[in-house]
Structure formats: structure tokens, C-alpha cells
């Protein structure tokens, strides 16, 4: 079961998730995941990333972030959107988000 999260509710929802996985796609079309802290600023998530993630974002800017809840059994937050590279940082603008329940 998934519960949609509106853009207006995303900053409040993210406050419950101190970190998440930034998922990009590499040149071989394999997923590349990087654990990053949650940093919401001016309507976007900002993350300091390495070279591979920056290269992936420049080539394929559609990315996903997955935020596991810190408490077992609680809903994870999944956010899709587009990103741009700004120096060593990726700026991720969400286009959709859902809370997704864990499989039981």
C-alpha cells in the first residue's frame, strides 16, 4: 500500500527521515546507490556526492531517493524527480513522493 505525499507535505515528512539512498543509473544502465543525509533547502534536496553520481546525473537526470524509516516496520518514503549537478552537489527537485509500507 502506498500513500501519496504532496509537494507541500514533503518537507514535514522528510523531517522524520534523517538520511536516504540517492539512486542514479550508470552508463551500463545499472543502479548506483549512495547513502546521503537529508538536506531540504528552497524546495529541493541537496546532497554532496562523488564523481560517479555526478556523471550519472548529468547523463540521466531522472533519479529516485529512498528513505527507510529509522524504526522497523514503519513506512519508507520514496521520492522521484530530476536532478542537476552544482559543483560537488546534486540538487534534486521532487516530482512525486509516496510513503510505502514494508512487506510483511
Describe this entry's structure for a reader.
By secondary structure, the chain is mainly beta. It contains 2 helices and 8 strands; from the N terminus they run E-H-E-E-E-E-H-E-E-E. It has a single domain (2-100), classed as Electron Transport, Fmn-binding Protein, Chain A (Pnp Oxidase, Chain A), CATH 2.30.110. Strands 1, 2, 3, 4, 5, 6, 7 and 8 form an 8-stranded antiparallel β-sheet that branches. The longest helix is centred in the middle third of the chain and has 9 residues, at 51-59. The termini are close together. It is 13% helix and 51% strand. It has helices at residues 10-14, 51-59; strands at 2-4, 19-25, 31-37, 40-41, 44-48, 62-67, 76-86, 89-100.
Briefly, what is this?
Strands 1, 2, 3, 4, 5, 6, 7 and 8 form an eight-stranded antiparallel sheet that branches. The chain contains two helices and eight strands; from the N terminus they run βαββββαβββ.
